Amino acid sequence: MLALCLILLSSTVFTYGSAGVRAAESSKITLSGNVSNVRVGDTFQLQIHGEQFEDLFAVEVVLAYDAQALRVEEVKAGAGYDAYDAYQIDATKGELYLPLVRKQLQPNPQATVHLADVTFRALQDKGVEVELQRVKAVGSAWATNEQGYKDMKRLTSEVGDAIAVQIEKQDSKAPDYSGGSGQAGSSSQPVVSGPTMIDGAKDVLKEKDPTKAAEKLQALLSGLKEEPTAAEKQALLQAAEATVTGLSQMPVSKEGTGADAVYVISAADLSQYDSLLQSIIAALHKWKLDSPQIAQAQLQAVMEYTLAGRDVNKLGVYHYDETTGIWEYVRGAMHQTDAAKFVISVKQAGKYRIQEYSKPYKDIAGIYAEAKYAVDVLTARHIVNGTSDILFSPSKQVTRAEFSSMIVRALNLDLLDAVNPAEATYSDVGAEAWYAEDIAVLRKLGIINGFSDGTFRPNDAVTREQMVVIAMNALRNLELTADNSVASTETFADAGAISGWAKDSVNKAREMKLVSGIGQNRFMPKQPTNRADTAVFIWKMLQQLN
């Protein structure tokens, strides 16, 4: 990658944005950013984006600006690109040369890509422009150039409009921000401390627009050169928590109404919000300004819906895959039924829908009503699958591997720590087995232990007491059971047959009304459970959690 970057740097031929750079596909390099209410001494950030490129592997851009009125403070590549700190600032001419190379070699088509963020400091009160003066873009495919040599394929691209900035005077005396020549891969930043820092944090709290608040906070943190005081830390942390909370809420546009409503999250918004959130979290961590609220922050989107005659228990969020043309289920969506909305963790831009899913199995019509509904609901939530496209096999025994996968999907346990993948270490669980990852997750969380001989016995039928222990261990792990609750005085007639390691879990499950026995007040702990009864058990558990 570094070699490829050097190849780009060695090129002296640029494509001028104003001359002969037109593409049928309207591929474009653009500038965007909030430049309202900029005063002398303020910083503001501009984002560089690539739009409508099939395969933008690398790009060179030259930004032109008024060096008397603006100074480049920071240059940061977007999440999918790298600048290798090879940018060059010519403060005499007022030019920023920025080469960017995509981190992944394979084509990665996107409608919009976030290339870089450039932070400027306002030095004089005047009207100025920042423009993309020159642009060169290449794809990852190789082609023969005019000289007959093998070279990376040149891409045609248009250039977006310049950004006009009106810089106003400060209301009060501001720190001296003049000076600084700027050099390749570096920037000069002033120290911001004392009342200025605390006032700046208060200003962040007043800002209603989350992106503007984030940019202001980012400017404050970028200005820090020494350990802030306790008072400054408190003010910054308060501003940071409010900013991160606001920035975590992604904008969602809604098209249509009722069951046909489509929710859209734009790629540009996702790129901007994610870039701001990650850079702020990193800057806060540098100065040890951490809190659980900040550390656990992630981009979320709220989607409100109208029921429109659908079964609320069978609704789910689906994302449209542009490649396959299929609406894919989004696991982990938090359903707030009372408020009629879903909250999802945003990983992808694009179109979303709230749909009711059903699969008419031919062999469940004759089972008891509670089980039939449980099967329908768990199928709609993609927790259980049929044994074929048309059969559920309700009386079939459930294996330990199958129940492990059901409980992982029901509680989304595999989404708790996707960064550190778990590994199955049982002698009879192969790494390639379809259930290996789910069993590994349960072991990692301390929900299962296996047998003393180092096996898990995935193909054995899960007994009723094993099923209850696994489920209750999972609920305890998630802190979803009340440990101080009063134990039920009722006992099963065959309580003596329950294994010692399972008694507490079975009693707790009975207290929570998850199990009620199999006739004559018997629990039948060693009896295997079937697919219909297991569906009822999991559905009761989910109702308790709701």
Automatic annotation (TrEMBL):
Residues 170-197 are annotated as: Disordered. Residues 184-195 have a biased composition (Low complexity). InterPro entries: CBM2/CBM3_carb-bd_dom_sf, Cell_Envelope_Struct_Comp, Cohesin_dom, SLH_dom. Gene3D superfamilies: 2.60.40.680. Pfam families: Cohesin, SLH. Keywords: Signal. SUPFAM superfamilies: Carbohydrate-binding domain. PROSITE patterns: SLH. It comes from the Bacteria. Residues 1-19 form the signal peptide. Residues 358-421, 422-485, 489-546 form the SLH domain. PANTHER family: OUTER MEMBRANE PROTEIN ALPHA-RELATED (PTHR43308), S-LAYER PROTEIN _ PEPTIDOGLYCAN ENDO-BETA-N-ACETYLGLUCOSAMINIDASE (PTHR43308:SF5). This is SLH domain-containing protein.
